Amino acid sequence: MPKRTDIKSILIIGAGPIIIGQACEFDYSGTQATRALKEEGYRVILVNSNPATIMTDPDLADATYIEPLTIEYVTAIIEKEHPDAILPTVGGQTALNLTMDLHKEEILEKFNVQLIGAQIDAIDKAEDRERFKKAMNEVGIDTAKGGFVHNWEEAKSLLEAMQFPVIIRPSFTMGGTGGSVAYNGDEFQELIENGLNASPTTEVLMEESLLGWKEFEMEVVRDNVDNAIIICSIENIDPMGIHTGDSVTVAPAMTLSDKEYQQMRNWSIQCLRTIGVETGGSNVQFAVNPEDGRMIVIEMNPRVSRSSALASKATGFPIAKIAAKLAVGYTLDELPNDITGKTLAAFEPTIDYIVTKVPRFDFEKFPSASGHLGVQMQSVGEVMSIGRTFRESLQKAFRSLEVGLDGLEPKPLADGDEDVSRARSLDMSTLRFGTAFRLLKVRQAFMEGKSVEEIYSITKIDPWFLNQIKLLVDIRKTLSLRELKENGFSDKQIGRLWNKTELEIRDLRKKENIIPSFKVVDTCAAEFEAQTPYCYSTYDEENEVEPLVGKKIIILGGGPNRIGQGIEFDYCCVQAVFGLQDLDYKTIMVNCNPETVSTDFDLCDRLYFEPVTFEDVLNIVEFEKPDGVLVQFGGQTPLKIAQALSDAGVTIIGTSPENIDLAEDREKFGDILDKLNVICPEYGTGRTLDEVVSIAEKIGFPVLARPSYVLGGRAMEIVYSKEQLIDYIARSADVTAGHPILIDEFLEDAFEFDVDALSDGETVHIGAIMQHIEEAGIHSGDSACVLPPYRITTKAMEEIIRITKSLALELKVIGLINLQFAYKDNQVYVLEVNPRASRTVPFVSKATNVPLARISAKLAVGKKLKNMDLKQWDHINHIAVKEAVLPFNKFPEESIFLSPEMKSTGEVMGISNTFGGSFRRATISAGNQFPESGRVFLSVNNQDKMNAIPLARDLHEFGFDIVATSGTALELNRNGIPTGSVFKVGEGRPNVVDGIKNGEINLVINTPLGAQSRFDEEAIGRACIQKGIMAITTLSGAEAVVRAIRSKRKIVVKSIQEYH
After folding, report:
1. How far apart are CA 754 and CA 840, in angstroms?
2. Sign of the C-alpha dihedral computed for residues 365, 368, 370 and 374 taken in this order
3. Is pLDDT of 875 > 50?
4. Which residues does residue 815 pair with via DSSP β-bridges, in sequence order?
5. How far is CA 851 from the centre of its chain?
6. Collapsing DSSP states into helix, strand and coil, what is residue 253?
7. pLDDT digits (tens, 9 = 90+) for 652-674
8. DSSP H helical ranges for 907-1010
9. Beta 214-222 vs 280-288: how paired, if at all?
10. How many angstroms separate the CA atoms of 371 and 374, rounded?
11. Is 272:228 a contact under the CB 8 Å cutoff?
């Protein structure tokens, strides 16, 4: 059936900010769907609150709304744009839930908007676990035993018919939020109550435990005339009990018999029919009992899911793109397969290689987390790798993770290894828990002579996988160089085995002509010739690709997402591709992250799905011989190997690795600052306890202490006294072993600024100057920032511009540079300089409509700024606010007081004509609720007391009741603002925390200063998270909130295109 002509415009709902459990796989699916629908001539309207993604770029959709994903704002967009249809299946759980809400509020009916891709009843049937179970049982598909409860009484009576352990799954949540396993009656009540609170419908499914069962997924696509195809099967190496997003997974499934596979296939397709998913991609999850082969369906997602991104990248079948086209009426036999150009989308993909996905965790950021994996998702990113055998694929995946591993073996305990702290010795009993590196422990157990049977009985990992890992252990000592390479061993690993360096092994390999061949992902196991080269390396005889002809540039991607390096860098890589394509360069992308747009096969001229390591990148460079390699867009990942590549003779274009390193080297950089007459906070470095203490005393407390080699602010702390400093050094000893500790003067209460700029070596263009709302001392990735700045003198602004320009030219920057400044007592200080793409680039590009990363790539190949007519950044008439999104709901024990250590997983943007309006939008998008009335608790330090008076008066005039700690209350009452008094923590009961827990307080403004008060705040902060109350810890933040409360008027929405 041809496409529908009764629809002209389609609204796509995005997934919002990156959170644990919902990462950039939906940025990828949303981008693909938008491009597919525009190609068909529809007007595409997009709403998403996330500025870091390519999806919200002004060039992509016809109208792009960067607004909160709430009913009020989406309704305002529907009212303004009058779309004919909504596509709700490419924005993750966020989009589905929002669509259900629009239906319940009768908004869809009122504005006559239809749904395409999935209907309300099908979404409800798949998502509502009770209806799903009933539907499956009616057609004879087996599900787990159990039932639904809505309160503690129901849970108690259902428990009588069940045995522990019991799995608890809240309805309508994502990433397993609120889910748990109860092993005994004592913990059962608390876990059930947590689950009921997490579910928006206060409904929990209690199920028999499937712990130890094997877990599988099927990725299915169906069209409106009931053609259905399986894209691929995925097997989890970790058995049931660990969220599939946290499991190591393999495609295709390895351990199913043909009969089991056929049954799973039939059930998947029958499941889609029964639920009524009319078109598009769905993901069906199964469990198989290894004892008796009983198979059950666990759940299905009636939308493009995390696994769809993986299945898409694993097979080369663009699921989201095809799903979008099926949603507007096409059938599978009418759509071409883009990779072969000869076959149709109705062909099931076949693959002649093995794909492995390994998740990436950042537990060290959250000391309160146990590190045990369970039914709630905790990983922050993932890598995928492709190999000819499972062994090769697994080793490549482990070295892609960027946690200091060179393959499936633990870190070598070397001198001066910056990651020493994370290497731990093995305890066999720990194998029974899923942890981030359980497969390394399995390998260790084989090294210690344990058998496959022993390990299977503890882990329930299928013996087939265990045998493969055992093989890797057994063959290390006996194989030839070629055979080791065929099994995925890296040059570094072989070097350790043979007591040689990585480069010596490389030379040996080349002498024996052992070089990788590049194979193609073509959806058809080489039956037809691929037209879009999407490649991976392996060690066998034949190359399936030739080097690209013409002028070409390699762009190195950012590897797996993690806290401190997220999708912003992927955005920059994609923009760089666009910039080079504008100049007729061929582009080659190297990356290993399956969730992102940069690894989409039709983005660049050639994609190498490979680890971004020195060895793998150099292999590609030697094969392709490009005109240059770009390293400044992928965050730290390419920068870590830039110098080594340069030493090996690779042409690195843009800012040179030497100059990038210069900014990291304190001594050399200090000399440059002196030469340019630029002031930075006082600092010193110490290697021993006495050295560190004497430096701190010379500078004067408070100081900022941190190890010397750190990213994302790991292990940084603000120290107020000698005692606290000694305690800090004792606690961080494992992180800093053998490394100096840096001590910086801490500018308490300073304003902070961020600048992004472009330089071509002759002229400098200021991209934007942003001001942070939080004061200095909070990692810039975690603080909200405003563009243009809201409080700065012209003189200071000019000084910031002068310093930016002179530093960019002095460091010979070609491309992007980011600087951070502090301003205190009429003095501008430079805090940090990074001559590379920064995480604010996408935000700035969208706020000012100047694509900085795209231009930066052009500068790297020799274009000049003077020939480009770039708009000045301050010629905008709107205000943009970027706010960080923090994962504290996953780690409820963590301190919410932000620190120099970065903890946010994603970001949102608010844009409007006023500061209050933009801040309000950003805050709502970040998941916080604005109180319209009620009671405010105020506690401010002495420096802030005078400035707090007008704020309190405003809040009082808006009709809020005010309570404060005794000192603050006295000041406010004397200034004619009626204020009640309440106890601090530790002064008596009921104190402020009791007030928050009892729901008597609706907003908390609490500005600590000094060590003791920072400590008091923890209890208040924790109570606020549990109750979902906004807690503001800076006076500038409080001013922003007052403005936002004041800006509550009728919602007016404007697209990004209209702002520009």
Report:
1. 9
2. negative
3. yes
4. 759
5. 22
6. coil
7. 999 999 888 888 777 788 889 99
8. 915-925, 945-957, 966-974, 992-997
9. antiparallel
10. 10
11. yes
What single-letter amino acid sits at 573? Answer: C
- The structure tokens 């071509």 sit at 760
Q: Which bin fits 85, alpha (ψ -120 to 50), beta or left (φ > 0)? A: beta
Q: In this structure, how many other beta carbons lie within 10 angstroms of the beta carbon of residue 146?
A: 20
Between CA 932 and CA 26 the distance in angstroms is 33
- Both tokens of residue 201? 């419908």
**Contact (CB, 8 A) for 870 and 891:** no
Largest CA distance in the chain: 87
Residue 518 tokens read as 């590049």
Token pair of 118 as six digits = 């999935």
Q: Where are the beta strands (DSSP E) in 71-177?
A: 85-87, 114-115, 146-149, 166-170
**DSSP state, residue 22:** B
CB 302, CB 118: distance < 8 Å? yes
Are residues 831 and 822 in contact, defined by beta-carbon separation less than 8 angstroms? Answer: yes
Distance CA 337, CA 317 (A): 8
- DSSP tag of 568: H
Which amino acid makes up residue 194? N
Structure tokens at 111: 């504005």
| Number of Cβ within a 10 Å radius of residue 962 | 23
User: Does pLDDT of 296 surpass 90?
Assistant: yes
Q: Which of 693, 701, 700 minimizes the C-alpha distance to 720?
A: 701
CA distances to 216, 240, 319, 470, 705 from 265, rounded to whole Å, are 11, 20, 18, 31, 57
- Written as six digits, the tokens of 818 are 């980011």
pTM: 0.89
What stretches of 266-404 adopt beta strand conformation (E)? 280-288, 295-301, 354-360, 381-387
Q: Is the dihedral of CA 759, 868, 636, 784 positive or negative?
A: positive
45 confidence band (pLDDT: 50, 70, 90): very high
